[in-house]
Amino acid sequence: MTELRQQLLDLLVQYAYQEGDFLLSSGQRSTYYINGKQVTLRAEGALMVGRLLWESLPPGTQGVAGLTLGADPIVTAVSVVSALENQPIPALIVRKEAKGHGTRAYIEGPSLDAGASVVVLEDVVTTGKSAMLAVERLRDAGYRVNQVMALVDREQGGREFYQSQGLTFEALFRIEDLQRRTQELRG
């Protein structure tokens, strides 16, 4: 998995990490931006993400979920890898707003048993508020959510926020991993 992790880091640096002046969804300004979809929507990137996160899921995980749109390819990738490993785990997509027609649902995907253990997945965590909305919607639906996992932790309070909410948080990479690798490649 170490080689796979390095390959994913290189993809993130090559396609997702940008430097400049950016306004984040949290409202904060930043000198860098990470567009995870530039990696998670590539076939090889999705497979790497799916494998690495699937390997990291806690035992007993019955579903993976995330807030649309950034988490959509991630939860799908993990679900597909789980099926390839003959341990299928369904993917759930959590809407920011309830659907305006049909069932008016916040959550799309297979219905799981009440109390099912669901892990929330995210591409990039800054303050932690985006994934927390998914946690709240899933808990309101009767699921047990104790963990958030991300591709990249910007290390701007998300980890501490999740801990204050009684959640475990894991990220495949910290922002310093991307920045260090960027410098190495610039040589």
TrEMBL record:
Entry keywords, A to Z: Glycosyltransferase, Magnesium, Pyrimidine biosynthesis, Transferase
Reactions that this protein is recorded to catalyse: orotidine 5'-phosphate + diphosphate = orotate + 5-phospho-alpha-D-ribose 1-diphosphate
CDD domains, alphabetized: PRTases_typeI
Cofactor(s) this protein requires: Mg(2+)
Claim: Lipid biosynthesis is one of the keywords in the record: no
Ligand binding (5-phospho-alpha-D-ribose 1-diphosphate): R95, K96, K99, H101, E122, D123, V124, V125, T126, T127, G128, K129, S130
Binding site for orotate: T126, R154
Keyword Glycosyltransferase: yes
Pathway(s) of this molecule: Pyrimidine metabolism; UMP biosynthesis via de novo pathway; UMP from orotate: step 1/2
Gene Ontology terms, MF aspect: orotate phosphoribosyltransferase activity
Family note: Belongs to the purine/pyrimidine phosphoribosyltransferase family. PyrE subfamily.
Name under which the protein is recorded: Orotate phosphoribosyltransferase
Source taxonomy: Bacteria, Bacillati, Cyanobacteriota, Cyanophyceae, Spirulinales
